[in-house]
Amino acid sequence: MMKFICQCSDVEKSSENVFTDGESSFFYKDLPEALNRFDAWLSSHRIDYTDCLIVECDNDVQSAIVLLFLLEKEYNFLVLPKDQKSSQNIGSFQTLPTFCRYRIIINSMTDKGKDAFYNPSHWLQVIPVEGYHQPNHTSQGKLYLKTSGSTGRPKIAVISNAALQGNARNTAERLKLTSSDRIAFPVAIFYSFGLTTAFLSGVAAGASIDIQKGSNLLRYLKRERVFMPNVAFMTPIFCETLVKGRRNAYPYRLTVAAGDRFRGNVFTQYEALSGCLVNLYGSTEMGAISAGSPEDSSDIRSQYVGKPMSGVQLRIKELNENDYQGLEGVGEVWCHHPFRFEGYVDEGGQAVSIGNDDQEGWFRIKDLGRLLPEGYIQIFGRSDHSVNRDGRIVFFSDIEKAMASISGIESVVVISKGDGRRGKGLIAFCVPVKGAHSTPGMIQNACFNVLPKNAIPDHIALIDALPLLQSGKIDRQQLYDSFDFSIR
């Protein structure tokens, strides 16, 4: 019995459930044979369990099967998006990690029938990695997962197979996922939220899963009509897309959102159209840390990221009270997690020091938050998404929320760069509403009506759209790099 699938409460029911990507479908009951064929194919290429593989995958059924096989057989592998090995985007590797011996490239299939999945030589390639050198130590059952790189250079986290299973069970239990659920998942399978949380928790429950590639509004709504999901995992940005574009209500049993915070009144608008929405809080290093419950009121679900997952402990290290006046109990979030990562490695496979971020089993998440007596967690954003201005702390999220209420602005992202008259410099990147004729000067003047003086941005930049990473998060690093004071 397979490790992940056997977690579901009714294996017989799940055997008739499917993975689908809109073009191909594959039943759970057919997985053992497909995995056996893949095992034989790898053996024919003399690939050993201790070899580390790069898996270049996409949101499709064949990628799902390959990932499940590698997890089932406890191979060591690094997940990367397909065809991104030479990308110059922020967060991409400049060279392929040399501690990996082979690249496994997953190609599209012309034959979409079940038998095609039993012939991996028709849709898989094995290519040696140039410059490969064997690490000083070998192990088995390690997933190497790149962090999102939303605020800087990504790191490679090492996560054990056991931790992945534990995290999947935790998430499935908290969200009450079952084999009767049909899960839509328009998030990238090669990032933490998509793989370790959405996909594997769905597999642990034995649910049918619609793995959506390159989802936009029209594609998603079309797939929704065909697949008829009752559960969805998505980013707040994609929730906002549905709010703006959906014409008719479609109720879900549950929608799970993770990533950036919701902007404006999107949370309330989404629930009016699609039913219960909960926030899930986690990281690549820790997996799922907390999640809301459908049993909580909408007000609680919109404000908080739920309560800690089973076995997870949180504590708050309060910061300088002079900086955080009026914000009692706010501080940096530290987490003790039974299914945490093992550490970081560099592109050569050498261990990278975590330094003071890891103390006696407690890991610093680098977010600012507050724990309520009832056990709920409130997250204000990353600790580097706030600055001291006129002796007081200003949160980027508070500025973004206030500026989103200004007429003519569709969305706002704030970063800090340089210095301003009141302290650290603030730059607001604004996407105007289509047809609006707002200017930076007009927006800055309007800020005086919605923000305290110390929170008014020093510079306003108008952009056509917010840059997004493949994980669905806003690419703040790209915004930071794009702003040039010399041309303002």
Features:
alpha/beta, Rossmann fold, nine-stranded mixed beta sheet, eight-stranded mixed beta sheet
Oligomer: single chain
Number of domains: 2
Biggest pleated sheet? 9 strands, mixed
CATH fold call of the largest domain: Rossmann fold
Strand content: 25-35%
Overall CATH architecture of the largest domain: 3-Layer(aba) Sandwich
Terminal CA distance:
63 Å
What is the average per-residue confidence, as pLDDT, rounded to a whole number? 87
What topology, given as strand order, has the largest sheet? 2-1-10-9-11-12-13-14-15
Choose one word for the global shape: globular
Radius of gyration: 23 Å
Structural class, from helix and strand content?
A: alpha/beta
Q: How much helix is in the residues?
A: 10-25%
The CATH superfamily of the largest domain turns out to be: ANL, N-terminal domain
Low-confidence stretches: 85-91
Kindly state the number of beta strands: 27
Number of helices: 13
CATH class of the largest domain: Alpha Beta
